[in-house]
Every structure is written in C-alpha cells, then in structure tokens.
Specification:
By secondary structure, this protein is α+β, with helices and mostly antiparallel strands. It has one domain (10-97). The protein has helices spanning 71-75, 81-86, and strands at 10-12, 21-23, 25-29, 32-33, 94-97. A three-stranded antiparallel sheet has the order 4-3-5, with no helix packed on it. The longest helix is centred in the last third of the chain and has 6 residues, at 81-86. It is globular and about 50 Å long. The protein starts with 9 loop residues before the first strand and ends with a strand.
Length: 99
C-alpha cells in the first residue's frame, strides 16, 4: 500500500454554520465525521426544502464556537471495540489520527 498523503489537521463542526473545533482523532462512518453537524438552527423564513440558517444569511453565527458538554462522549461512538468488530457493517467507524 502506498501513502498518498498525510492528515495535517482534523476539524469537526458540531453546529451547522458555526465555528469548528480541532481534533486529535476522529471517527469516520457512513455519515461522515462522528459528531459533525449534529445540530442546526431552523428558520421559519427559509424555504421548506432547506429550512436551516447558514452563515451566508447570518454571518454572526461564525463568531460562536459550540462545545459538547461531555467531549469524551462526543469523540467516539458509544459502542465497544468488541461490538464494533462483530458488526462492522452496522457500525462502520474508522479512527483517523492527525500526524
């Protein structure tokens, strides 16, 4: 296997259109980075197809840096390594570490 690149930095954005947080390790699955964009603000003025506020409309959102109350729980899926090994299709998470 040949190396095609290295990871310089890992970022996760818990709330859509707000500032992100840098990570030393991230778990990647079918839905992307674990804990990324779990939350968003809805706008009743936005069209029904995409009802979320974004930094395009509300640039002040980029000033805020959200944090998880318990960052350790948000860092990795709530399943043991043994369970993950026995159900690789059900919980397809891969740890990625910054180098």
């Amino acid at each position: 296997m040949s190396i095609i690149g290295t990871v310089d930095s890992l970022w996760r954005y818990p709330v859509k259109s707000m500032r992100g947080e840098t990570l030393d390790e991230a778990f990647i699955g079918f839905s992307g980075v674990y804990g990324d964009r779990l939350f968003a603000f809805r706008s009743s003025a936005q069209p029904k197809g995409f009802p979320y506020l974004t930094a395009r409309e509300q640039q002040a959102m980029l000033r805020y840096r959200p944090r998880f109350r318990d960052p350790d729980k948000a860092a990795r899926p709530p399943i043991s390594t043994k369970q993950r090994a026995s159900h690789p299709v059900l919980i397809p998470c891969t740890p990625i570490r910054r180098t």
